[in-house]
Every structure is written in C-alpha cells, then in structure tokens.
Design brief:
The structure holds two protein chains of two kinds.
Chain A (H helix, E strand, L loop, with lengths): L8 E5 L4 E6 L8 E7 L6 E6 L4 E2 L4 E4 L5 E6 L8 E8 L9 E6 L1
Chain B lengths: L4 E3 L2 E4 L5 E6 L6 E7 L5 E8 L14 E5 L5 E5 L8 E8 L13 E2 L3 E5 L1
Classes of the chains: A mainly beta, B mainly beta.
Amino acid sequence: DAKTTQPTSMDCAEGRAANLPCNHSTISGNEYVYWYRQIHSQGPQYIIHGLKNNETNEMASLIITEDRKSSTLILPHATLRDTAVYYCIVSYSTLTFGKGTMLLVSP
Amino acid sequence: GAGVSQSPSNKVTEKGKDVELRCDPISGHTALYWYRQSLGQGLEFLIYFQGNSAPDKSGLPSDRFSAERTGGSVSTLTIQRTQQEDSAVYLCASSLAYGLLSTSYNEQFFGPGTRLTVL
C-alpha cells in the first residue's frame, strides 16, 4: 500500500470548516483514497472514499488533486463531536492505518 | 445484532498464558479483518478472511498468533504464550465482501475492540 503523510494534529473552532490534508505521492492507479476516523475509545468509522473525482456525502467532502498525489478531507461545519483521529489511507482493499491527524474541535 | 461485536471487552492475563479473542461480524458479511492498536499508535493490520480462508497471514506479528473462522461467521484470534508487548486493543471489522465491488465500496464496520493487558 502507498504511504500517506498527515499532520500530527490540528485545531478547529466549532462551526468552522475543518480541512484535513493528506499527501500520498506514491499512490498507484488502482488505489483509492479512504478516510476513516476514530473517536476516543471507539472503533474506526468510515467517512468517505474516492478515486480521482471529488466526492461529497452527508459527513464530509473529499477533494483529490488532479495528479492524485494529495487530498483534503473537509468537514464543512465542525462540531465538538468531530474531535477524533482522522486516518487517510490509500489502498485497493486492505486498510493500512498510519497515525492519522488528531483533530481537536473547540468551542 | 446490528453491528460487529467482540468479546471479551477487556482481558487481563499473565505473561505466558494463552488468550482467545472472539469476533462476531455483521450477519451476511463474508469478509472479516483483525487489527490491533497499541497505546498511542495507529491501527496495525493483522489478518483478513474471505469466508473461512485467510489468504494472507503475513501481518500476524509472530507464530504465537493464529486466527480461524468457522461457518463464515465467528472468528477467533488466539495468542499463545502472551508477552507484555502483546498488550493492545484488538479490533475486528467486517465487510460485505473483500475488496471493491463494481458498484460500491466495501465499507469496513468495526467492533468496539478487546483491550488486552498482559501483566
């Protein structure tokens, strides 16, 4: 699986958009970009995935650069309950989790 | 049940003892995955099952670790002669199938995990 690089931590004010970056410069053609998050003491939760087009669902938006070497997960209106570790993963199937980004949403 | 369940939720054992961790996947999910998460670390993939077979066991950290799945449902992860470095949260996930389907992503649904502490 391709490796990903994410910032260790980020802060966001409640109600603001949280933009979480991810670099995956060695992604191969058949690998998707997945985002999961893990709220403290819970199992990971799927957020969104994409191949090359931007994607949006009820939780978030995923913006993938044209060269596919990086992506950004956008939580449009962050709430306190969005405080979690966010994992960016590139893979065809089996998920390999890195250390992710600890997003802290503050009042 | 509605989701993936794991038992026990917590397990404390002495070094050298064997432990068995159980995972009940979502009904109808053919793929099952085991991960572990050590304190302050990301998730480490251990093994996956397609039905009852495990095509790739290379993620298991040592030969003390083994896993089986019977009836395409329940899976058991066994750790023999436990060591202190085995202390971690062991997470199980299941998905409808392995890999990507033509129409949708095989979202992995995770259980709450088993916290293993080896004294």
